[in-house]
Design goal:
The protein has 17 helices and 18 strands. By secondary structure, it is an alpha/beta fold. The chain has 2 domains: 276 residues, Rossmann fold (3-Layer(aba) Sandwich), CATH 3.40.50; 206 residues, Rossmann fold (3-Layer(aba) Sandwich), CATH 3.40.50.2000. The strands form 3 sheets. A 10-stranded mixed beta sheet has the order 5-6-4-1-7-8-9-12-11-10, sandwiched between helices. A 6-stranded parallel beta sheet has the order 15-14-13-16-17-18, sandwiched between helices. The longest helix has 22 residues. Bound molecules: 6-O-phosphono-beta-D-fructofuranose. The site of 6-O-phosphono-beta-D-fructofuranose has 8 residues, from loops.
């Protein structure tokens, strides 16, 4: 069983021997920027990104991604390549350059105004612009060309990450059927009724079915996918194997719940550096001793249920005014996709709500909500979790939600409570969390009270059980399952 980084690395070396490993994702693992004349880099937060980085560090290979960092062009060679990680190079990042129209059409347009709202049921209407679709196809082809060039004549295994690249496997297989393609669809897959409105549904399904394996976080999304295929295209479903035959090709459908590096978080949370950062946060936000801290940590995205969370805090204070000055809700919101109108509207709505709620409930020395628009580094995120007596994850719909799992991993003193939306993939595993329906503000407010007033023994008991779930299903186990299933696919391809 894969239980740590070393075991995962060994598994990859054993199982994928002889295969060049290629990762393809929209987001790159390292972004370069320039500050005071010097080049620096930052790592976008995210479980998948860190794990794929570990995989490539173990076996070498190439990561192909959109080069979106402001100084990305300054560090690459003439082919757009840079060796990573910068301090100990083990693999190559090949950057794909997109001009403004391509980025607008492929990323802001089709990926994030069509597919994102289509797959998340949050009542935000998807927009299917023909020109966005054309750019989406074009950029997927650019990725395919980069993969094929990289592979040359050799054997390769390509790990395609997420919804930005739904056509990539198809474009690769058109040229080279023998290249093994697996895709992890990181967001929910909706029910067939929701998906059927998509004008490009056939092309998207055919694109995804060019993969040898297609994986989702939870079985339910896989079942939705299979039902969608049954309704929309000609295909044969093998229920025994959970696979789909279409156009002479078989695709395994699998579910692997992404997780976090439980051990690493559990250890680093107590480090001197984390404690120091937590102290600094307390100072910066004037968080007094004895005042309970409720946390929120999200990209500012309309799927995350941030306005619902603020309304629930408001309702909580209306119903239970005795809690005034006894807690503070601090929300870190990383700005995201702000070229898209709905994201700008959401930011305005949040500003207004924070202002109104604080105005309404503040006392001379206290305001209930602190809203900070900031992207935290991983180290800062840990310090932030350290402070949280309660963490709220109130997504309206979420493929998994990593914050919930990170927060629990960070609470090795067993003192904390998680309010978790039933509409996250994580809620299927984390049944001992205080589960909420973020649309039900009345109940949400009561659950905040429950979390704040829960007896210590109950908090500890729940926390123990929740942490056990993550300890047993951490990020290495996730990647191990993915690699093992890929290896089975390689075997059956060899036989075929
Ligand atoms: O989970 C969906 C996802 O789009 C990931 O692919 C991505 O890493 C994350 O959300 C952040 O989104 P973006 O890359 O658009 O900033």
């Amino acid at each position: 069983m894969v239980t740590n980084k070393e075991k995962l690395q060994k598994l990859i070396r054993d199982k994928l021997k002889g295969y060049q490993v290629i990762v393809a994702s929209n987001r790159e693992p390292y972004l370069h920027y320039m500050r005071e004349g010097k080049i620096g880099y930052l790592r976008p937060a995210g479980g998948a990104s860190n794990t794929l980085d570990s995989i490539l560090k173990a076996c070498g290979g190439t990561w192909i991604a959109y080069g979106s960092g402001p100084a990305d062009r300054k560090v690459v060679d003439e082919e757009g390549k840079v060796r990573l990680p910068p301090e100990d190079p083990r693999y190559t990042l090949k950057r794909i350059w997109l001009n403004k129209e391509e980025a607008d059409g492929y990323y802001y347009g089709f990926s994030n105004q069509a597919l994102w709202p289509l797959c998340h049921i949050v009542y935000t209407r998807p927009i299917f612009r023909h020109s966005d679709w054309q750019y989406y196809q074009k950029v997927n082809r650019m990725f395919a060309e980069a993969v094929l060039k990289e592979v040359g004549k050799g054997k390769a295994f390509v790990w395609i990450q997420d919804y930005h690249l739904a056509l990539l496997a198809k474009y690769i297989k058109e040229q080279r059927k023998d290249i093994v393609c697996t895709q992890f669809w990181h967001i929910p897959w909706p029910n067939p009724e929701a998906f059927r409105i998509c004008p490009m549904k056939k092309e998207i399904l055919e694109g995804l079915l060019a993969n040898d394996m297609l994986a989702f976080h939870v079985r339910y999304y896989g079942e939705n996918f299979i039902s969608t295929v049954e309704k929309e295209i000609e295909a044969r479903i093998d229920k025994e194997k959970t696979s789909i035959f279409s156009r002479g090709h078989e695709t395994m459908i699998r579910a692997f719940a992404i997780s976090v590096d439980f051990q690493k978080i559990s250890q680093e949370i107590d480090s001197e550096a984390t404690q120091e950062r937590a102290r600094r946060f307390k100072e910066e936000f004037s968080l007094s001793e004895g005042v309970k801290i409720i946390l929120g940590l999200d990209r500012v995205d309309y799927t995350k249920g941030i306005p619902e969370r603020l309304r629930a805090i408001n309702r909580f204070l209306e119903k239970y005014p005795e809690y005034k000055e006894r807690f503070v809700f601090i929300q870190m919101g990383a700005l995201s996709r702000v070229h898209i109108q709905q994201y700008r509207d959401l930011n305005d709505e949040i500003n207004e709500l924070v202002e109104q709620i604080n105005w309404r409930h503040s006392t001379e020395s206290w305001s209930p909500i602190i809203f900070v628009r900031r992207t935290l580094s991983f180290a800062e995120t840990l310090a932030f979790y350290r402070l949280g007596d309660v963490c709220i994850v109130s997504s309206l719909h979420d493929g998994m939600n990593i914050v919930a799992k990170e927060y629990l991993s960070a609470k090795n003193n067993l003192d904390g409570a998680l309010l978790l939306s039933r509409f996250t993939g994580a809620a299927r595993e984390l049944t001992d969390a205080v589960l909420i329906n973020p649309y039900h503000i009345e109940d949400f407010a009561d659950k905040i009270k429950l979390a704040l007033s829960m007896p210590k023994e109950e908090r500890v008991e729940r926390m123990k059980r929740l942490r056990q779930v993550i300890a047993e299903n951490d990020i290495y186990k996730w990647a191990g399952k993915f690699v093992n299933e890929t290896a089975k696919t390689l075997k059956s391809l060899r036989r075929g």
